[in-house]
């Protein structure tokens, strides 16, 4: 199903100097394929090629950049099932989720193709006072330069797309480091990009060890670093990034408030998906469920019933909902955090068991908010419930976090909905659904420890560009 080995892409070209990186099947833990691993010298070559190609790339006509992006849409559509099954193997992602991720990549590149031909600016009158009479101006966006991209394991295709597609649309060259555990989707994307007319050196896709990846952060030839991953690593990279612009998407421990008037069956259905899809390995997965005391017990019963019916197993099985966690150590970490919470007075509503690399869909209650399973990003199939009596207090509970990515509210009360939107300290508020919603054209990102900047094609393009102003003195003009 996977090739025996995969090359990396250096300056648009496939190269196979070694097969040093072993990629495992996350369900069986057996080797699935081998991948070429880049070293520091290769990364340096890629950066140099990116710098050299930038002048050609930035002058590439918009319709040609659009053609490249549309080519990706066509080829990924043709290879949809191949890419979906690759995600099942390298990421342990259930096949239904994998197909959804491939579809989202198509959406992301399609939106980027549209945005590539509408990079606009603005005429700006300057005669706001007598001293500026006779002056006028305009501004527009120019590509920022070569970009450094570092992507995570959990969405190894679409989170790559959210960096690559805006870069091509804007006219930026780039060097990408895909996650070492899940590099296959990015390398297949590289194969597709190599079929296009991008200028030589416009892109490199280089799996590499963390020790050899310092240049992605420290090299001043890059003008932007875009990183998606853990907060600890992200803030460290920012501290070492020098003068370049930095965009960080760093995760969270998303809260979802269920008001007294919510449709509980609908809320339960959505909360189960939000908390447990992809085994909770999503930065906007539902981790904290804050429920009005009048409906708390009823919702708890509905959630426990639904969670107990989720099927765990082979990601290639069409009925599987819960796949393996990315490593057995991550499953053991989840087990440790849940046990710690129980020892501290928490109660298991359902789940709480580990089976090798699998961890059961787990709901806890009566958990001390200082426990790791509540206050730190769990990145696993665990959610914590607690009741509230006053909506303002529910919002305060949701805000009691070092993170601020997205939050969800189930309510029919428009005043409560707008209060939550105005007062929640997050990058996005979702009404009558879980915070796990992401549509690929929306501004996506967080505040506080959840990061800096926004993804979503148009918003990423803004980060990948600089505004340049033109001022004209009309004196002497006919």
Query: What is the name of the CATH topology of the largest domain?
Result: Aldehyde Dehydrogenase, Chain A, domain 1
| Estimated radius of gyration | 24 Å
Structural domain count: 2
- Proportion in β-strands: 15-25%
Query: What is the distance, rounded to the nearest whole angstrom, between the alpha carbons of the first and last residues?
Result: 69 Å
Going by CATH, the architecture of the largest domain would be 3-Layer(aba) Sandwich
What kind of sheet is the major sheet? 7 strands, mixed
Give me the count of strands: 23
Give the helix/strand class: alpha/beta
User: What's the CATH C level of the largest domain?
Assistant: Alpha Beta
Strand order of the largest sheet: 15-18-19-14-13-20-21
Give the number of helices: 15
Look at the structure and give the mean pLDDT. Answer: 97
Pick out the low-confidence regions.
none
- Fraction of residues in helix: 25-40%
CA-based shape: globular
CATH superfamily of the largest domain: Aldehyde Dehydrogenase, Chain A, domain 1
Offer a concise description of the structure:
With 478 residues, the protein is α/β, with parallel strands linked by helices. The chain has 15 helices and 23 strands.
Write structural notes for this entry.
Helices cover 38% and strands 21% of the residues. It is an alpha/beta fold and 478 residues long. The protein has two domains: 272 residues, Aldehyde Dehydrogenase, Chain A, domain 1 (3-Layer(aba) Sandwich); 177 residues, Aldehyde Dehydrogenase, Chain A, domain 2, CATH 3.40.309.10. Helix 8 links the parallel strand 11 and strand 12. Helix 9 crosses helix 10. The longest helix has 22 residues.
């Amino acid at each position: 199903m996977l090739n025996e080995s995969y090359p990396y892409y250096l300056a648009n070209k496939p190269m196979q100097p070694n097969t040093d990186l072993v990629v495992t099947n996350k369900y069986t833990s057996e080797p699935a394929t081998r991948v070429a691993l880049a070293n520091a010298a290769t990364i340096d070559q890629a950066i140099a090629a990116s710098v050299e190609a930038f002048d050609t790339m930035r002058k590439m006509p918009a319709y040609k950049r659009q053609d490249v992006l549309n080519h990706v849409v066509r080829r990924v559509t043709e290879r949809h099932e191949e890419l979906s099954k690759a995600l099942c193997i390298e990421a342990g992602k259930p096949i239904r989720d994998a197909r959804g991720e491939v579809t989202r990549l198509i959406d992301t590149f399609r939106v980027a193709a549209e945005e590539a031909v509408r990079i606009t600016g603005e005429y700006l009158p300057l005669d706001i006072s007598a001293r500026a009479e006779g002056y006028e101006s305009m501004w527009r966006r120019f590509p920022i330069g070569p970009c450094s991209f570092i992507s995570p394991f959990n969405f190894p295709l679409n989170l790559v797309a959210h960096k690559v597609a805006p870069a091509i649309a804007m006219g930026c060259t780039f060097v990408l480091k895909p996650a070492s555990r899940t590099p296959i989707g990015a390398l297949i994307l590289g194969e597709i990009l190599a079929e296009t007319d991008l200028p030589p050196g416009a892109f490199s896709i280089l799996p590499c060890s963390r020790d050899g990846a310092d240049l992605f952060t420290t090299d001043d030839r890059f003008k932007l670093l875009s990183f998606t991953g853990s907060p600890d690593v992200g803030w460290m990279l920012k501290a070492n990034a020098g003068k370049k612009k930095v965009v960080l998407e760093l995760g969270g421990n998303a809260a979802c408030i269920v008001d007294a008037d919510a449709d509980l069956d609908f809320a339960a259905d959505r909360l189960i998906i939000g908390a447990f899809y992809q085994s909770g390995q999503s930065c906007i997965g539902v981790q904290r469920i804050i429920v009005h005391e009048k409906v708390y017990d009823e919702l708890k019963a509905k959630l426990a019933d639904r969670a107990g019916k989720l099927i765990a197993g082979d990601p290639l099985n069409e009925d599987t909902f819960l796949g393996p966690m990315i490593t057995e150590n991550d499953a053991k970490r989840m087990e440790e955090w849940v046990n710690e919470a129980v020892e501290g007075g928490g109660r298991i509503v359902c789940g709480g068991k580990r089976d090798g690399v699998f961890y059961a869909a787990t709901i806890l209650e009566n958990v001390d908010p200082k426990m790791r399973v509540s206050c730190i990003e769990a990145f696993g199939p665990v959610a914590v419930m607690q009741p509230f009596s006053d909506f303002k207090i529910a919002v305060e509970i949701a805000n009691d976090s070092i993170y601020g990515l997205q939050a969800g509210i189930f309510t029919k009360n428009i005043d409560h909905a707008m209060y939550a939107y105005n007062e929640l300290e997050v990058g996005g508020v979702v009404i009558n659904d879980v915070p796990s919603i992401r549509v690929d054209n929306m501004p996506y990102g967080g505040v506080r420890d959840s990061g800096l900047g926004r993804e979503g094609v148009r918003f990423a393009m803004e980060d990948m560009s600089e505004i340049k102003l033109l001022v004209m003195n009309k004196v002497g003009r006919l």
